[in-house]
Structure formats: C-alpha cells, structure tokens
Amino acid sequence: MEATIASLSNANAEAAQAIATGKRVLEIEARALHALVDRVGDSFVKAVDLLYNCRGRVIVTGMGKSGIVASKIAATLTSTGTAAIFMHAAEGVHGDLGLVRKDDVVICVSKSGNTGELTRLFPALRRIGVPIISLIGNLRSALAERSDVVLDVSVQEEACPNDLAPTASSTAALAMGDALAVALLERRRFSPEDFAFLHPGGSLGKRLRLKVDDIMFTGEKVAKVKLDTPLREAILEITRKRFGGTCVVDDQEVLRGIITDGDLRRLMERDFDVRTLTAADVMNDKPKTVQAGSMAIDALRIMEDLNIMQIVVVDKENHPVGMIHLHDFLEAGVS
Q1: How would you classify residue 165: left for phi > 0, otherwise alpha for psi between -120 and 50, otherwise beta?
Q2: Neighbours of 174 (CB within 10 A)
Q3: Is the alpha carbon torsion for 35, 41, 43, 49 positive or negative?
Q4: Dihedral, CA atoms, 72, 75, 80, 81, nearest 10 degrees?
Q5: Rg of the chain in Å (alpha carbons)
Q6: Which of 126, 179, 306, 329 is deepest in the core (most CB within 10 A)?
Q7: pTM above 0.85, yes or no
Q8: Read out DSSP for 254-312?
Q9: Closest by alpha carbon to 60, among 155, 125, 154?
Q10: Per-residue model confidence as pLDDT tens digits over 202-227
Q11: Cα 143 to chain center, whole Å?
C-alpha cells in the first residue's frame, strides 16, 4: 500500500512538473514574440521592398535549426505568391550557389550571425551582386555587418533550461519570416483564389475551385421518373441509383419535384394504398436545386442548412442534369 501511494505521489509530481514546464516554455516564447513587435520598422520596410521588387527568386538559407526555419520561410513565401527556394548553407558552399542569380534576393537565417557556412557564402554572394537580408539574433556579428538589411530576431532567453537549444530564438525567426510573407501577400493583393490556385490539392483549393459539375453524377446515373410513374417503380429507381431520392420530371424533362427516402417513410405513417399512387402524388413539389456551374461549397452549405442528403443540379431551363449525395462532397474533400 505504501509503495502504491508513493508511486501515485511521484506520478502526480511528474505531471505537475510537466505542466509547469510547458507553461514556462510558452510564456518565454510568447515574450520573445512580443518583443519583436517594436522592432518592425524601417528595416522591415526595406526588406519587404527588396522582396517585392525581386525580379528573380528569393533564396532562403541557413544551417541547423535555423536552416529548418529557413526552409519553412521559403515554403510560406512560395505558397503566398513569392517565388522562393531553400538552399542549405553547407550545400551552398559545395556547389548549390549555382542556384543564385543576380536578379535574386537572399535571406539568411542565423541565431549567432557567425555561422561558418554562411559567412563563407558572402564573398560569392557579393560577386554575384544579390542583396542580402538577414534574420539575426546577434547584431554585432559578421553577418549583421555584411548584410544589406538586418532584422533583429534576438531573444532575451531560450526556453531551454540550459539556454542552449534554439527554442525561443527559432520561434522568433520563424515569426519574422511569417511577418515578411504576409506583408508581401498584402502588397501583392494575393487573394484566396490565388492561394487556391497554388493549392489545388488542399482543402481550401477544393472549396474555392471545385464546382458541382466536377462531382455530380450525370446521364443515366441520375435518378429520374415521370409524373405518372407508379410509386413502386419510383421506389425501384431510388434503390437502383443509390441517391436516396429520385427526380420527378414532366414530358419535357423539366423538374417538377423530388421523392426521397424521408418522403417514403412519412408516407408509410399515413393511411394510403401505395399501389394506387404515382410519383406526382408523393413528390415534394419544391425540390432544392442548384444551377450547373455553381461552386460545390455553396451547394454543400445549402444541404447543411436544410439538413438534406441529396441535391439536384439543373440547367437554365430547369432540366435535371446531375445529382449529388452528401457523401460525394465528402469523398471529393469538400467540407
């Protein structure tokens, strides 16, 4: 019993320590980010101007943890309309400098500002003639002295208890990179549609670009019966086409109504001889529809608001040209 109590006590102490450590780390990093706010000024504007006016690409480079941050900054710039690539500093001094052209802009990321691989890049970068922006944690460093624009991302302390592992400093550099990317995004008037164009496989891209025409079932796959079709045959059509409903059309193929599984269940609660009924007797004569060419996300919102499982796609003459089930949206990644 005493051993069990001691074990529980130790577990509780360890849990409390983990929570305290987690909070301390987040507080230190939050303070580091807050300190950056007052440093966004003239140098930041110069950096944004250089990047906006870049006629080539933005080359982002760094080593170690700073290299990982540099890679993420390059990815963020690229996805928001600024062509950028990551160049590992060590690979740069062993041939990858061939990536850099005089129309490019280089961003260096370094906590110490004295990273050997980066300082060895500078003579070659100067010969090429590219402007250099540095995100640096040491303003008295070799990189700070040689850069065209310096953005101060120094931190008062790391979250690491030994003040060694890059934690708050890497967060600060990453956040400054985000600030540059967003400032450029706004100056370029980069729209959600632009973002979707660059992310066709992502959920946002699908929401902003996918139309009902891209996911609807058409032709013989559309569940459809005539007004005078016996109810039994209408039920068979619902079963065959697997939409949980069927369109009801007149002799000109104009949509006049819809019959759903829900309509059939409600019919069973009433005193009718189903053998004498036709599709026209049972249908909902105000079916929910969307026009062909509508955005898929808009159709999905209608279905969610009305709590329906299928929707009919019609052309300008109100002919049913397609049907979509809720599951089709989910399978297409529209949500």
Answers
A1: beta
A2: 21
A3: positive
A4: 140
A5: 31
A6: 329
A7: no
A8: -EEEEEEHHHHHHHHTS---GGG-BHHHH-BSS--EEETT-BHHHHHHHHHHHT-SEEE
A9: 125
A10: 555 556 678 899 999 999 999 999 99
A11: 34
